[in-house]
Design a protein that fits this description.
The chain has 210 residues and is mainly alpha-helical. It has five helices and no strands.
Length: 210
């Protein structure tokens, strides 16, 4: 019988009084005992086998008058050893967990520092890049402003030239028109004079005829 099973049996037997009291009882409720075993996780087959084993063990112990104190002492020893083993295992587990937590904490701290350094480096690079981009953009804007000023100067100069040419052309046109008007006036005066002279001559001739 395994130590785990023995412990469960001892616990169940203690619920009905002490081991000695139960061993001195001549009757044993197999069905009730099997139900208790099932309630703590045993299968039907396991519960029946355990009940039969207990009956056989009680019968054998009663028949051979085995000293139950030795069994109880052995069980107590096993339980004590189990308790010591469990405490030792729990202590080792606690130490291992503590060590693992410290290692994890150190690793996390290291990773956080590396991430912080990387982020700081990336931020500095981004800041430098942005500064360079802003400077390049400022240079381009200044170049555009310069081109705009040059274009404004050129347009102003061209406008002045056009204005000067238009003024000159208008003056030439006015001069030509004035000259043409004078020539036309002179021609009209000459033609009118000729007509008047002819008319006078005709009138004189008519007067002589009459």
């Amino acid at each position: 019988m395994r130590l785990h099973d023995i412990i469960l049996v001892i616990v169940l037997l203690k619920e009905s009084n002490t081991i000695k009291e139960y061993m001195t009882t001549l009757t044993f409720d197999t069905l009730a005992y099997a139900k208790k075993l099932k309630s703590v996780g045993f299968t039907d087959a396991q519960a029946e086998a355990q009940a039969e084993t207990i009956i056989a063990l009680i019968t054998e112990q009663l028949a051979t008058k085995i000293d139950l104190k030795e069994v109880e002492a052995a069980l107590k020893k096993d339980l004590k050893e189990l308790e010591i083993t469990l405490k030792h295992d729990m202590k080792e587990l606690e130490i291992k967990l503590s060590h693992d937590i410290k290692e994890l904490d150190v690793k996390l701290s290291h990773d956080i520092k590396e991430l912080d350094v990387k982020l700081s480096h990336d931020i500095k690079e981004l800041d430098v890049k942005l500064s360079n981009d802003i400077k390049e953009l400022d240079v381009k804007i200044k170049a555009i402003d310069l081109k705009i000023k040059e274009l404004e100067i050129k347009l102003t100069h061209d406008m002045k030239e056009i204005e000067s040419r238009l003024t000159y052309a208008i003056k030439e046109l006015e001069t030509k028109l004035t000259r043409d008007m004078k020539e036309m006036e002179l021609r009209m005066t000459i033609k009118l004079g000729a007509i008047m002279t002819t008319g006078i001559a005709i009138i004189v001739a008519l007067e002589k005829l009459l």
